Structures are given as structure tokens and as C-alpha cells.
Structure of Glycoside hydrolase:
Amino acid sequence: VPQRPWWKDGVVYQIYPASFKDSNGDGIGDLNGIISELDYIRSIGVDVIWICPMYDSPQVDMGYDIRDYEDVYRPYGTVQDMERLIAETHARGMKIILDLVVNHTSDQHKWFLESRSSQDNPKRDWYIWRPARYVDGERKPPNNWVSNFTGSVWEWDQHTQEYYLHLFCPEQPDLNWENAETRRAIYKSAMEFWLKRGVDGFRVDTVNMYSKGEMLDAPVTDPGTEWQFAGYQYCNGPRMAEFLAEMNQILNKYNAMTVGECPNTPDMKRVQEYVSAREKQLNMVFQFDVVDVGQGPYKFQTTPKNYTLPQFKGAIARTQALIRAPSDGWTTVFLENHDQSRSITRFTSDAPQHRVAGGKMLALMMAALSGTLFIYQGQEIGMTNFPETWEMSEYKDVDSSNYYKMVAARTKHDPDALEAAHKSLQHLARDHARVPMSWSTAPYNGFSPPEATAQPWMRPLEDAAVCNAKQQQSDKASVLTFWKHMLQLRKQYNDLLVHGQYDDLDVENEHIFVFSKTWQGKTALCVCNFTDRVQSLEFLEALRNEEMELLVSSVDARVEHELAAYEGRIYLPAHVEA
Ligand code: TEU
Ligand code: CA
């Protein structure tokens, strides 16, 4: 049997530097803070850490607007601190991957400053510049595309009298991947600089947006505005395979892995190509099927829990199908990241009597799904969304504030509309993942030292007394202890749980998720109760063959023929070899 690559069996822990741990009391997380908690991370059973952008940046979009790929945002630390973090991670037997953000830079990057300085600057073509079109004498952008953060994707540049493209904020101009010289500069500065320093791979931001194809007007899907959703046009353009092949020449020199972020890609055939081993485009991708369940293109206009369990299961089935024979591809398992609200709140219940059960059941479910497993900081202790009572001023994300401003402008500050906007942010805003990590019941929840000189940059949660890492480490009944147990089981039954074939055994069931995992003729069963009520397990008798034995339940006081509210279980065939 050929040896499996490390990134298939590894469990990845995602770190958001601003909110993980503040070592020097300025209210902002930092690299020394991360280094100080590497033993904690290792103790969870994690094999790989992923660091969200720690590069020099004006922080318009929390570091996804990079000013200098070869430097570190000073409040986080220095390049030397990064070298130490890489060494300390490796010394503990873990790998480290970074965020590669090269669809766009900051508007303060020296490349863009040159590009915008004149129409004949040698770097003019490094970004995407277009002349205006004039409609009845009125200046209009080249097309009607809406940016991911509301408004047009085109920004008028007064000085050089052209528009430039930005799929995200105006402060995040898109690089022109059509230009070979630009691509070479990207590889050298953003990739090789860090590969030479020993990083093991990249989470590749918005990777499917490099090739934009023809930039024609998008169809009108939102009559309330001039600017229209164009995600299916600017994602997965005609030159993607070529660009990725070129990138892989660099990555191969360092044996580096990739996990590419793939928004707006419902076409599973295309996803299959990205992750196919033969195609060598990306090792794996993050699809949005599961985390976007129930959402249209305008996520905040969705009401909470606007999906059925069969829809949720369907999304999981699509991602699991990526490894179904005869596929030579690979897949990922995740419910959270820095762009999502908390999974307990979204997919189970954050009511006090249910949150622990919900967190454990999701841990069990995730640990039983095939593919590389990603955990986001705080998920391992069951952190939830912040409360509805928090005012709009606590939301710091540009995505949230732009949405709220858009609603205000469109409805002329209609109080009901604004209340609805606040409510949808309470459910879905990216801010919920970005509050300081709850380490303990010390001041600032242990995120900053007690002698801190500034408040944490985002308000710490008020529930640290019932949810913090320190207490959970010594509590046998905690979400954290359960995650550790599940990750051990996942390693022990690696073939079945990480590589097995997934089958949903009761697609239409609105309350219970029951799926099997099969590897070389052996089949495990996973059952999860997604309701807050007891459910009979009788239906299982028909599915479960006599030889099955309970491997694990997510509740302590288990009842034989009943599933408790938010209980999950895994059954194994008797005599299975670990
Ligand atoms: O996100 C890209 C993306 O398409 C979405 O997840 C985006 O966050 C969403 O449309 C907003 O509602 C990546 C990063 O993960 C995100 O943090 C950055 O803001 C974005 O790229 C720009 O770099
Ligand atoms: Ca700090």
C-alpha cells in the first residue's frame, strides 16, 4: 500500500491571529501568544495549524488586504517571530500552513501604488483597469457586477481617469493574473518567501477567482440595485487549470500542500477536476455547500435556520461524494472558519441546556466524515455566537457594517428593516467567529494578560464562566474532552472514518442524520439526533446488522433504544481491527 500523504489524515486547527492570544496586553492577539499555546493545540490531537493572514496590512479586511507579503503586521510580530513559530510548530511534530491571498492585494501595496500612478506605468497592467462607459452622457463602470461587500466592483480613479476592479473592498484591488510578469512576482513574493522559511503549504484564498473570463454584465437578480451578483462569471474562468499548473511547479519544489477556497462552484464536475490527483490542480478545496445551506446569493437576507435537515445532509453528501470510487480526489470536513458564525448556534442550539450536547454531537459527526478535518479556534470548546443584545457597534467586520449601511440606504433608515438586518447579522455575521478566544475566567477571559493596557479589539464573550479552555481541560464531561476523544477514535479507525465510503441511509428523515462508512467490506454507522427532543431508535434496528457494537455516544447517560436530544453515536461492526 503506498503511503498516504500527511495532509489526508491530518487534523487542521485554524488560528485567527487577532483573536487567539494577546501576549503583550495591547488587546490584539499576536504570534508570541500563538507560540505560548502550541502545547494546548497539540493536546487536542491536532496535526497541522493554519494561520490566517499575519502579513503587513492596513487591516481593512482583517489582513486579507496585504500591503507586503514579505513582512508581518507589526502588532502581531515580525518575520523572526514567524520563523520561531514555524520552528516551534515543527518541534512539536506539527505542520504549519499559511493563508495565500493573491487574488488581490491592499491598495497600499507598492505594486498598486505604482500601477495607479499613471496609465503608462510599467505596472499598470498588473491590476485590472478599464475605461468608463458613458450612458446618456453619464459615466458608468465597465459592467454591473456587485462586489462581495456591496456596491460596484469598479472604483473610479480620478488621477488616471479609469476604473479598477475589486471583487471585495475598494481597498482590495484585484491582481491581473493574465500578466505573466505579475504571476512570477506573486510566486516569488507571496509563496517562495515563506516556503523557503519552511511552511508546509497554503490555504489558498478565493483561488477560483484568478481567471475572470469575459467580464460581461450579469443577469439582474436583485432589482433593488444597479449591481448584480456575478459570482458564477468571475469564478472558475478559462485559464484556471493553466494558472494552477504553473503555481504547482513552485509548490512541488517544496512538497507543499494546498487547500483552495472555492466559492460559487455548484458544478461538482469542476470541483472534481480541482481535487483530482491526476489533474494536480489543488490537493483539496473548501466548498460552501454545507456552510451556506439555506442561503441564496445574499446571505444576510436569509432567515435563521432557513433549511431542512435533508438539505443539510444533501450538502454533506455532495462534498463526501468527491472521494467516492472511482474518484481519485480528496475532500474536506468543516463547519466553521473565520467567515462563519458558530456551528452550535447555526446547526444545533445554543440554549444553555443544549449547547454542550450540540457541540459534542457535531464533533462526533465531523470526526466520522471522510476527508481532511478542519477545526476553527474556539470550536473545540463549543463557543457560540455572541448575544442578540449586543449593539451594532460590537460588529467590526466590513462585511457586516457594509450590509447594514446598504439596508439603511435602501430603506431610508426604516427601523423594522434595520432590526431585521441586525437580527440576520446576529445569526450569520462573520464577527461571531472573531471575538477573543475564551481561555479562562481571568480578566478579558484570559485572552489578554490582567495587566493589559488596552481593551481587546473585540468585546470578549460574557459566558466564559460556562465555556473556557482552562476549565474544560480538567472536566471529563466537557466539549473539549469529547473532541480529544473523537480525534483519538478518528486516528484509531482511520480507514473507516477518514477514508471510508459515505452513504446516507435515510435521506428524507427530517430529525435524524444516519449515515454509514464503508471500508473494505466493513461498515460503521453514525446516528445524530438534530432535534431537542428524544427520538426513538427503533428505525435503526432495521439498518443495523446484529454484529454492530456501540463505539461511542456523545452523552453520558445513554438509554439503549432512545437517542437523547442532540445525541450522536457511532456503531462499529464487531471485531473490526483498529
Ligand atoms: O473569503 C471569500 C469569500 O468568497 C467569502 O467567504 C466571503 O467571506 C463572503 O462572501 C463574505 O460574506 C475569503 C476570506 O476567507 C475572507 O475572510 C476575505 O474577506 C475574502 O476572501 C477576501 O480576501
Ligand atoms: Ca498583542
User: Anything to note?
Assistant: The radius of gyration is 24 Å. The mean pLDDT is 96. Residues 500-573 form a domain with the Immunoglobulin-like fold (CATH 2.60.40.1180). Residues 180-195 form the longest helix (16 residues).
